[in-house]
Write a structure and sequence with these properties.
The complex is a heterodimer of chains A (240) and B (275). Chain A has helices at residues 14-27, 33-47, 52-59, 63-74, 77-84, 94-104, 117-130, 140-153, 157-169, 183-205, 215-234. The termini of chain A are far apart. With 240 residues, chain A is mostly helical. By secondary structure, chain B is an alpha/beta fold. Chain B is built from eleven helices and ten strands. In chain B, strands 2, 3, 4, 5, 6 and 7 form a six-stranded parallel β-sheet that branches. The radius of gyration of chain B is 21 Å and the shape is elongated. Classes of the chains: A mainly alpha (240), B alpha/beta (275). Chain A binds chain B through residues 14, 17-18, 21, 31-32, 35, 38-39, 41-42, 45, 77-78, 80-82, 84-85, 87-88, and chain B through 95-97, 99, 125-127, 129-131, 133, 155-156, 159, 162-163, 165.
Chain lengths: 240, 275
């Protein structure tokens, strides 16, 4: 045969290549978060697209994963390298930086006259790695963020900033010492928790067939489900 | 006294030989320090300690520079002149900012006369790789000093592949690596390795194929290594290397050579003590 038919395919663009890779990875083992974030950064630059939902649709990544990646990209290159080289046994992985992000970018904290980003990161790295200041788990950063938010909403801005400044320098100071007026939110959370548990138990026990015609119940339940989902997302909780 | 015995150097001459041999280490030991190190061994064990020192190799900065120069010259397609170069070339220090790879980039630059603004954009970090639009025509050269077990390289390889994300050729230039690391890297990665020294069993005292030391001598050495480092008495990877780079001992070396604590003072401290 003198002629061999070929199917000529145009060379893919960088963005097309990356999107294809994301799609392949969706079917295979997930990338680590930091390499994913760096790919996403290239894609954002190439397509001039920064919206979480649009990027989620393009890549097949969950929108929450896109948000987490963007948090990692906020950090300076030296910390990105730290994540890239992280050993599986290291305590410092992408999760550390994701949980620290809301504290570093808190509008009250980041505007404090004593705020020094590198010093803050170094302090929290030290505390977390050595379990200083009562650090036990990555979720302890959420307690700190809660203490800051509660203090701000109750008008204790100066007090919480003073405490946080001392906390950054003092490895003996416990996380709980940052608490100002958090008790009322603990009480509110306890009431909410009891209500949710009661509702969950009641729902579990109903015989669905007996309620099939209760349209209002099903509509309210669907709205509740959506509200629970968006509230979890607002709290940066991973959704299954 | 026969001629063979007369030919043996005196103890003072041996001390002077060791001092000369070890002079390239960043904090070179003098005769007094070497004698103090020997004195840490029981009298009956001191000949074994002396034999260990006879087998230690310290690689000088000049050796490292020569190795980096030879390695880059050996890479097909590389040329200082961008017009003569095949594809784009990038150099990446392997490891975090405080680790050896990043530090070795400077030596690599000096070795290859690349410390000029014209080459500045050739030097990148791992996080830069996805932005480089690498293709099959391009080359990424990772630089480090030493690989003992190859664990760090093989563990990082899947991540490196994701970041390179192309058929670009990847090289790893080292000053030295063990045969074990070479096998591990070649089996688990697509990196092409270039190293001045490939260390075999005779460079690793605890290697089962090392025949320079008898089993009795290895047991004697291990007894003191247990004092130096009770956790890793044979060094990381159980190698007990007798090979020291001028700027730092690898953690795969014999602990009696590099531990710098009150319980043991090695001749080639891995970490300097604050005075």
């Amino acid at each position: 045969m003198d002629l061999i038919p070929i199917n000529e395919v145009a060379e893919p663009t960088l963005a097309e290549n990356i999107v294809t890779m994301f799609q392949i990875h969706k079917l295979r083992k997930d990338w680590d978060l930091m390499p994913t974030a760096l790919k996403l950064e290239v894609l954002m630059e190439e397509l001039d697209e920064r919206g979480d939902n649009a990027l989620s649709e393009l890549t097949g990544l969950d929108a929450a994963v896109v948000t987490r990646c963007k948090k990692l990209l906020w950090y300076d290159k030296q910390y990105q390298e730290m994540m890239l080289y992280a050993d599986p046994e290291d305590r410092i992985k992408a999760d550390f930086f994701i949980e620290l992000y809301p504290i570093l970018t808190d509008r009250l904290v980041s505007k404090a006259d004593w705020f020094d980003l590198e010093k803050m990161i170094a302090s929290f790295l030290r505390k977390y790695q050595n379990r200083f200041s009562g650090f036990k788990a990555i979720t302890d950063f959420r307690k700190i963020k809660q203490h800051i938010s509660v203090a701000r909403s109750s008008g204790h801005d100066d007090e919480i900033l003073m405490l946080l400044k001392r906390f950054v320098d003092d490895d003996a100071m416990e996380i709980a010492e940052l608490e100002i007026d958090t008790a009322r939110f603990h009480r509110q959370a306890s009431v909410l928790l009891r209500s949710i548990i009661r509702l969950r138990d009641e729902l579990r026990d109903i015989d669905v067939e007996n309620f099939l015609g209760e349209e209002e119940l099903w509509e309210e339940l669907a709205q509740f489900q959506e509200l629970a989902r968006t509230t979890l997302a607002r709290a940066d909780r991973r959704l299954n | 006294m026969d001629a063979a015995v007369e030919a043996q150097p005196s103890w003072d001459e041996r001390l002077a030989d060791w001092r000369r041999k070890f002079r390239h280490y960043r904090e070179p030991p003098d005769e007094t320090t070497i004698q103090e190190w020997i004195d840490r061994f029981d009298r009956d064990d001191q000949q074994v300690a002396a034999k260990v020192l006879d087998h230690v190799k310290v690689v000088s900065n000049l050796d490292i520079i020569a190795g980096y120069r030879e390695a880059l010259a050996a890479l097909p397609g590389w040329n200082r002149d961008p017009a003569q170069r095949a594809g784009n070339w990038y150099f990446v220090g392997f490891g975090r900012a405080h680790e050896s790879g990043a530090a070795m980039v400077r030596t690599f630059c000096e070795a290859n006369n690349l410390a000029y603004a014209a080459f500045a954009d050739r030097f990148k970090t791992l996080a830069d790789l996805p932005h480089l639009r690498l293709t099959a025509e391009d080359h990424v050269v990772f630089i480090d000093d030493f690989a003992g077990t190859g664990r760090q390289v093989t563990r990082m390889w899947p991540r490196i592949m994701e970041l390179v994300a192309s058929e670009a050729k990847c090289y790893l230039i080292l000053t030295a690596l063990t045969q074990r690391a070479q096998d591990a890297i070649q089996n688990s990665t697509e990196l092409q390795i270039l190293a001045k020294y490939v260390l075999g069993p005779e460079d690793a005292l605890f290697d089962q194929h090392n025949v320079s030391f008898t089993d009795h001598e290895k047991n004697v050495v291990e007894k003191y290594c247990l004092i130096a480092d009770p956790k890793w008495p044979k060094g990381f990877g159980d190698m007990g290397l007798l090979f020291v780079l001028q700027h730092k001992s690898a953690n795969n070396c014999l602990p009696i050579l590099y531990i710098n604590e009150d319980r043991w003072r090695g001749l080639f401290p891995r970490y300097l003590r604050v005075a």
